[in-house]
Amino acid sequence: MVSPKSIAYYAFHPNELRSMIQWKIWHNPVHERDESKDSENLKRCFYFLTLTSRSFAAVIMELHPELLVPVTLFYLILRGLDTIEDDMTIPLEKKEPILRDFHNIIEKDGWNFQENGPNEKDRQLCVEFDKVIKEFKTLKPAYREIIADITKRMGNGMADYANNAEHNLVGVNTVKDYELYCHYVAGLVGEGLTRLFVEAGLANAALLKKPELMESMGQFLQQVNITRDIKEDLDDNRRFWPKEIWSKHVDKFEDLFKPENKQKALNCSSEMIYTALTRADDCLYYLAGLREQSVFNFCAIPQTMAIATLNACFQNYDIFEKNVKITKGEACQLMIESSQNLQLVCDVFKRYSQKIAKKNNPHDPNFLKISITLGRVEQFIESIFPSQKPPVDQKSPANVEEAEKAKKQAYEEKWDLIYMAAAVVITVLVITSSMIGVAWLAGARFDIAYVELKQQVGALLGSAEPTAVEAVKVITEKSEL
């Protein structure tokens, strides 16, 4: 059921409401999965995809049929690996060999893992991991080789961090360590997906010669998530913000969450956001190398969500108090814009870059670095989609016609918003009236309620008539007799 808070929010943000309706009603997937052709085993894998993925399931399900199953299994294998690595109830001496040998485990028929803690949210995936292995072994050899290679490298990286006592005790130390961690958990994913895209003939093979681009695709998403989730990670006793950054502002990591250090915390967060922003232009460059629409959507939607999330987090102390997210309406608008072409995606990046620039604080020690980085993003966009236009001849009939058309369109959009707001108000009034009518038919006594309200107001004003309600009740009883 929609909450009153949501109704109030969208009443004042009709554009977001319209985006939600448009996405729900008018969005047509580029490709739709034919469930009738799936085995029961594969259906179970898709079930685990939707169960374990918070954000990627929807875009994966719309991928080109050639990539749908390989990418799904790639995701589930890495999710299984991460579930074992993330479970602190598993002793290191048992965990490490599994992580390092996971690329071989995915070739073993019937293997599963039932030793995760009872509170591990993705435990069931590991319990039924034999189903994932069975489907993995049906993939083309080239796909299996790519997935196994990435799994091997990621598993070894995770094992190295699990063995790092300093990391487990104080978290990430330097920015270099931070980016290495992001490489293992996200950069490798970007590489693996790129190799799958190219192998399927749905991306430009030149991307494989630009490893920094596919690295940035994963790094950007992971760094945004780490920046946003600082409070959640603290509650889970995890620290991913590098000490090299936060130690410039406070003595202890926990000091970032003290109200008296609010400005220091904001300055620290802006440096984290700056670190992520340095990857933004590479992401746009990468998207230019994709050849197929569903693959483009799959890659572009998370990236635009990420830049919007950075804007929501920038100079926002709420990230130290709760998990900050963009609204559903904004997310739907981003999905609409990101599932069309590169130019619209660039427009999104440019729009949010400008929003971040407006909030950039000159007193922030990172002000100049952030300004330069945002300028570089806009410069890159300008290089592929120049905005310069020839001088406009105001007397030209064509320009007069265009101006008139634009004016008419603006007028229509204005009335669209008015009609939508009116529809919301009328709907609320109709529902309220219906509820009052039903209450009246059920025997509700509004005259007594009115007198009680009047008496309470009178009491507040010092002119109450204490026997007013009793008088009404006596009259009512007599009338009933």
From TrEMBL:
TM annotation in the entry: 417-442
Top-level taxon: Eukaryota
Keywords (A to Z) from UniProt: Lipid biosynthesis, Lipid metabolism, Membrane, Multifunctional enzyme, Steroid biosynthesis, Steroid metabolism, Sterol biosynthesis, Sterol metabolism, Transferase, Transmembrane, Transmembrane helix
UniProt GO MF annotations: D-glucose transmembrane transporter activity; squalene synthase [NAD(P)H] activity
Compartments, record wording: Membrane
Cofactor(s) the record lists: Mg(2+)
Chief subcellular location: membrane
Catalytic activity: 2 (2E,6E)-farnesyl diphosphate + NADPH + H(+) = squalene + 2 diphosphate + NADP(+); 2 (2E,6E)-farnesyl diphosphate + NADH + H(+) = squalene + 2 diphosphate + NAD(+)
Pathway(s) this gene product operates in, as recorded in its UniProt entry: Terpene metabolism; lanosterol biosynthesis; lanosterol from farnesyl diphosphate: step 1/3
GO biological process, one term: ergosterol biosynthetic process
Coiled-coil regions listed: none
GO cellular component: endoplasmic reticulum membrane
Protein's membrane topology: Single-pass membrane protein
Alphabetical list of Pfam families matching this protein: SQS_PSY (PF00494)
EC number(s) per entry: 2.5.1.21
NCBIfam families listed in its UniProt record: squal_synth (TIGR01559)
Family: Belongs to the phytoene/squalene synthase family.
Function: Squalene synthase; part of the gene cluster that mediates the biosynthesis of squalestatin S1 (SQS1, also known as zaragozic acid A), a heavily oxidized fungal polyketide that offers potent cholesterol lowering activity by targeting squalene synthase (SS). Catalyzes the condensation of 2 two farnesyl pyrophosphate moieties to form squalene. The presence of a gene encoding a squalene synthase supports the identification of the cluster as being responsible for SQS1 production and suggests a likely mechanism for self-resistance. Catalyzes the condensation of 2 farnesyl pyrophosphate (FPP) moieties to form squalene.
Protein name: Squalene synthase
Organism, scientific name: Curvularia kusanoi
